[in-house]
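From the shared-data thread, chain only:
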Amino acid sequence: MSDKMTIAALQAMKREGRKSIGVVAWDYQIARIADRAGVDFVSVGDSVGVNLWGRDEVVEVTLDEMLICCQAVRRGVTRALVSCDMPFGPVQDGADAALAAARRLMQDGGADMIKVDAAADFPDVVRALVQAGVPVFAQFGLTPQTAIKYGIPYSAQNSKDAQATAAAAERLVAEAKLLEQAGAALLDFTNSGPVAGAAVVKAVRIPVLGGFGGGPWLDGRVRLAHTAIGYAEKWIDAKTETYVNTAKAALDAFAALIADARAGRQIKG
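Structure, as tokens:
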């Protein structure tokens, strides 16, 4: 538990059949707690804009904002790897812009690897980053947009239509191999499903991890830290099970604080 995690160690876990686990986090305190718990990596996601700051779109997050979050997480982590998302823009602008952004996130932010979303659409950028010494955590998978591109149902990963499921799996295996050949260190497979997910895991030598739409058929899992601990206003009324409901506990705590203050009692803490 005390040994510093490395990309090579994550890749060895796949070969040995051991599952890896990471959490998405954006701040020092959650990073500290997750690191002490023993996660293998902490992913600084561009989802911070929507989930923590209340923005409408993920693409609104800037490189400077990602840098601040990455620095905070880096300060909180001593054992786990730190992955930082490349925000929307640099990858779309080409290899030079992506490399400049990656260097900032690694040199100034302290990231150990860089997450590239929709990486299968930008294999040349992935290759350029890797050749420049930037470890890439490449995201790909079935989304509404890629389903339209491939002409297959978005629900194909869970479809009872064997032909649609096979078609989706074949195309996703091809994307995974493309990213492995481009030099990606890890894959983040969105909406893998048990058929395509298992096929991709078998087809590539690098770890295939998954958050949304993933499952035990993958080499490891990524979970939003705030989802794992039920830390969001929505969890106050949610029926979905999570590992702890921090939102309800916080609501009760604030109510007790208000009651003590208004009754003239000394407040706690």
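DSSP finds eleven helices and eight strands in the chain.
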